[in-house]
Specification:
The chain is mostly helical. It has one domain. About 50% of the residues lie in helices and about 0% in strands. The chain contains three helices and no strands. Helix 1 runs antiparallel to helix 3. The protein is elongated. About 10% of the residues have low confidence.
Length: about 120
Amino acid sequence: MGPIYLFDVASSQAHWLSLRQAAISSNVANANTPGFRAQDIEPFAKLLDNRVVPVAVTSPMHITTGDTVRAQGVRKQDSWEVVHSGNSVSLEQEMLKAGDINRDYSLNTAIVKSFHRMFMTSAKA
Protein backbone atom coordinates (compact mmCIF):
# COMPACT_ATOMS: atom_id res chain seq x y z
CA MET A 1 0.00 0.00 0.00
CA GLY A 2 1.40 3.38 -0.98
CA PRO A 3 1.38 6.60 0.98
CA ILE A 4 -1.92 8.44 1.32
CA TYR A 5 -1.79 11.77 -0.50
CA LEU A 6 -4.16 13.60 1.87
CA PHE A 7 -1.94 12.90 4.87
CA ASP A 8 1.11 14.11 2.94
CA VAL A 9 -0.61 17.38 1.97
CA ALA A 10 -1.89 17.89 5.52
CA SER A 11 1.60 17.36 6.89
CA SER A 12 3.06 19.82 4.38
CA GLN A 13 0.44 22.41 5.26
CA ALA A 14 1.05 21.98 8.99
CA HIS A 15 4.77 22.56 8.40
CA TRP A 16 3.98 25.62 6.25
CA LEU A 17 1.67 26.99 8.96
CA SER A 18 4.40 26.62 11.59
CA LEU A 19 6.88 28.48 9.35
CA ARG A 20 4.35 31.27 8.76
CA GLN A 21 3.66 31.53 12.48
CA ALA A 22 7.40 31.88 13.10
CA ALA A 23 7.60 34.71 10.55
CA ILE A 24 4.66 36.49 12.15
CA SER A 25 6.10 36.12 15.65
CA SER A 26 9.36 37.60 14.35
CA ASN A 27 7.42 40.55 12.94
CA VAL A 28 5.66 41.13 16.26
CA ALA A 29 8.93 40.83 18.19
CA ASN A 30 10.49 43.49 15.96
CA ALA A 31 7.49 45.83 15.89
CA ASN A 32 9.53 48.64 17.48
CA THR A 33 12.82 48.00 15.66
CA PRO A 34 13.65 50.98 13.40
CA GLY A 35 13.88 50.05 9.72
CA PHE A 36 12.51 46.51 10.18
CA ARG A 37 10.39 45.30 7.26
CA ALA A 38 7.51 42.92 7.90
CA GLN A 39 8.09 39.47 6.42
CA ASP A 40 5.78 36.72 5.26
CA ILE A 41 6.28 33.45 3.41
CA GLU A 42 4.95 32.41 0.02
CA PRO A 43 1.34 31.19 -0.09
CA PHE A 44 0.74 27.46 0.39
CA ALA A 45 -0.88 27.35 -3.05
CA LYS A 46 2.54 27.92 -4.65
CA LEU A 47 3.83 24.82 -2.87
CA LEU A 48 0.93 22.83 -4.28
CA ASP A 49 1.58 24.21 -7.79
CA ASN A 50 4.78 22.15 -7.95
CA ARG A 51 3.03 18.90 -7.07
CA VAL A 52 1.43 16.71 -9.67
CA VAL A 53 -0.86 13.92 -8.56
CA PRO A 54 -0.91 11.09 -11.09
CA VAL A 55 -4.32 9.69 -11.92
CA ALA A 56 -4.49 5.90 -11.60
CA VAL A 57 -6.07 4.27 -14.62
CA THR A 58 -6.91 0.62 -14.01
CA SER A 59 -9.20 0.18 -17.00
CA PRO A 60 -8.98 1.45 -20.59
CA MET A 61 -12.57 2.71 -20.13
CA HIS A 62 -11.49 5.23 -17.48
CA ILE A 63 -11.46 8.88 -18.44
CA THR A 64 -8.01 10.38 -18.58
CA THR A 65 -7.27 14.02 -17.94
CA GLY A 66 -5.04 15.87 -20.35
CA ASP A 67 -5.14 19.13 -18.44
CA THR A 68 -4.00 19.64 -14.90
CA VAL A 69 -5.76 22.06 -12.60
CA ARG A 70 -3.36 24.46 -10.91
CA ALA A 71 -4.05 26.73 -7.99
CA GLN A 72 -3.43 30.40 -8.62
CA GLY A 73 -1.00 32.25 -6.40
CA VAL A 74 -2.24 34.91 -4.02
CA ARG A 75 -0.93 38.40 -4.61
CA LYS A 76 1.34 39.55 -1.80
CA GLN A 77 -0.24 42.42 0.10
CA ASP A 78 1.67 45.50 1.16
CA SER A 79 1.91 46.48 4.76
CA TRP A 80 -0.85 48.74 6.02
CA GLU A 81 1.46 51.52 7.15
CA VAL A 82 5.09 52.49 7.44
CA VAL A 83 5.96 54.65 10.44
CA HIS A 84 8.55 57.43 10.44
CA SER A 85 11.25 55.03 11.71
CA GLY A 86 10.87 52.94 8.53
CA ASN A 87 9.24 50.02 10.36
CA SER A 88 6.47 48.38 8.30
CA VAL A 89 5.04 46.05 10.96
CA SER A 90 1.35 46.57 11.70
CA LEU A 91 0.41 44.70 14.87
CA GLU A 92 -3.25 44.61 13.83
CA GLN A 93 -2.35 43.00 10.50
CA GLU A 94 -0.05 40.49 12.20
CA MET A 95 -2.80 39.51 14.67
CA LEU A 96 -5.21 38.96 11.76
CA LYS A 97 -2.63 36.70 10.10
CA ALA A 98 -2.17 34.79 13.38
CA GLY A 99 -5.94 34.28 13.55
CA ASP A 100 -5.94 32.97 9.98
CA ILE A 101 -3.19 30.51 10.89
CA ASN A 102 -5.15 29.30 13.91
CA ARG A 103 -8.26 28.78 11.78
CA ASP A 104 -6.31 26.99 9.03
CA TYR A 105 -4.56 24.72 11.52
CA SER A 106 -7.88 23.82 13.17
CA LEU A 107 -9.39 23.01 9.79
CA ASN A 108 -6.33 20.94 8.83
CA THR A 109 -6.49 18.83 11.99
CA ALA A 110 -10.27 18.38 11.72
CA ILE A 111 -9.98 17.09 8.15
CA VAL A 112 -7.13 14.72 9.04
CA LYS A 113 -9.04 13.45 12.08
CA SER A 114 -12.18 12.80 10.00
CA PHE A 115 -10.24 11.09 7.22
CA HIS A 116 -8.34 8.98 9.75
CA ARG A 117 -11.63 7.91 11.36
CA MET A 118 -13.07 6.95 7.93
CA PHE A 119 -9.87 5.11 7.02
CA MET A 120 -9.85 3.12 10.26
CA THR A 121 -13.54 2.29 9.90
CA SER A 122 -12.98 0.91 6.40
CA ALA A 123 -9.92 -1.05 7.58
CA LYS A 124 -11.94 -2.77 10.33
CA ALA A 125 -14.59 -3.99 7.89
